[in-house]
Amino acid sequence: MYSLIRQCLFSLDAENAHQLSIQALALFGKLPFSPFAIPSNPTTVMGLHFKNPIGLAAGADKNGEAIDGFGKLGFGFIEVGTVTPVAQDGNPKPRQFRVLEAEGIINRNGFNNKGVDALIENVKKAKYDGILGINIGKNAITPIERSLDDYLICLRKVYEYADYVTVNISSPNTKNLRSLQYGEALDDLLANLKQEQALLSQKMSKYRPLVLKIAPDLTDEEIASVADSLVRHQIDGVIAGNTTLSRESVAGLTHAEQQGGLSGKPLHQLSTRLIARLSTELNGRVPIIGSGGIHSLESGQEKIDAGASLLQVYSAMIYQGPSLIQDVAKVRLK
């Protein structure tokens, strides 16, 4: 069945196909039934109880418009966003490209979204009973030195409605955003966000884990530095990782020259290496959510074996369909 759906979707521009899919999943979410079971492979991470360790990565449902539909596909958790304080159009179109031969996708979306308030309204309407993460970012017009302001605005607004909050400082499509992954800039950001988390936790009598999403393009020295910051600031989790700027795995293929972040199957080895390096540095002190290139049960197991506690998929599901969730959910957890 999905092969026919994919054939229709792939006849469209990648972004138009995505929007059509979100609309279809929003309708699917309203149905009183689902042909897909929720795989049972329970685990507890960051103090949260997951029905299974397979999650939807951020970027798929930026505005939380199809939470219930995605939930009915079998995910153990869903992460919506990235969302910014105010709505923004993102980068000029076209900005999404399929690398068909490698089952990859290149995007330079630039955090296109309807703003944090619109996301919250959609979250409030959703009936999904799994774990929901909300991924937050900065507006493109906000100077990099004022990034903290945007993250604090979003954290304060989403805290009540999220099971965990992800801080995205690793998208390659917002100017200078990745500079926040280094040194004093990272320490200052994490220190202030943890302080705000403590205030919100006390005010609302509920603790929401804070997760950092990092890039797979970091050097070993940079990974060690990030790990040190995660531990020192008691960050609750880390997503490894985002899209890559590298084109080594798709060199010469159609659309490989397009600017933006590469995701999908070509990212698997690079993201697994990031997980392994992080796992060595963190030594179990901060749980890792493995994301990037998971396209099979075997590739998911490699990430678990490298040190991940949870997994996220997105691009490979576009190529393979919902059956991927059912397959990868069979991973053997440590």
UniProtKB/TrEMBL annotation:
It catalyses: (S)-dihydroorotate + a quinone = orotate + a quinol. Gene3D superfamilies: Aldolase class I. One of its GO terms (biological process) is 'de novo' UMP biosynthetic process. Pathway: Pyrimidine metabolism; UMP biosynthesis via de novo pathway; orotate from (S)-dihydroorotate (quinone route): step 1/1. Its cofactor is FMN. Residues 43-329 form the Dihydroorotate dehydrogenase catalytic domain. The active site is at 171 (nucleophile). It holds the Pfam family DHO_dh. Binds 1 FMN per subunit. Its EC number is 1.3.5.2. It is found in: Cell membrane. Coiled coil: none annotated. GO terms for cellular component: cytoplasm; plasma membrane. It is a peripheral membrane protein. It is an enzyme of class 1 (oxidoreductase). Substrate binds at residues 62, 107-111, 168, 173, 242-243. One of its GO terms (molecular function) is dihydroorotate dehydrogenase (quinone) activity. Monomer. Catalyzes the conversion of dihydroorotate to orotate with quinone as electron acceptor. This is Dihydroorotate dehydrogenase (quinone).
